[in-house]
Amino acid sequence: MVRVEREDGVALVLMDRPKVNALSPAFLETLDQGLAKAWEAPGTRAVVLASAQERAFSAGFDLKELDRLGPAEFAGFFGAFA
User: Fold this and answer.
1) How far apart are the C-alpha atoms of 33 and 2, rounded to whole Å?
2) Residues in CB range of 18: below 8 A, 6 or more apart
3) What is the pTM of this model?
4) Which residues of 6-19 are buried (b: 16+ CB within 10 A; e: fewer)?
5) pLDDT in tens, 12-30
6) pLDDT tens digit string along 56-68?
7) How many CB atoms sit inside 10 A of residue 24's CB?
8) Which is nearest to 82 in space by CA: 22, 1, 28, 21?
């Protein structure tokens, strides 16, 4: 869902979740891990977040996934998102 590529001190973090990168709890966690991995590499001077999807950067929240969450899970997701 997320891959990190590097070139000359620049880390490119590519979101690649089918259906235009809709944000779900699992995808957000994977994205967070990818961004951390990008910054942790020695010599990284910049990180660029981009979409590997051709149609859009992100469709926003995955409403079907979020609808399945209980109140505590929902609050945790938005805390992580913020």
Assistant:
1) 9
2) none
3) 0.87
4) eeeeebbbbbebee
5) 999 999 989 999 999 999 9
6) 999 999 999 999 9
7) 20
8) 28
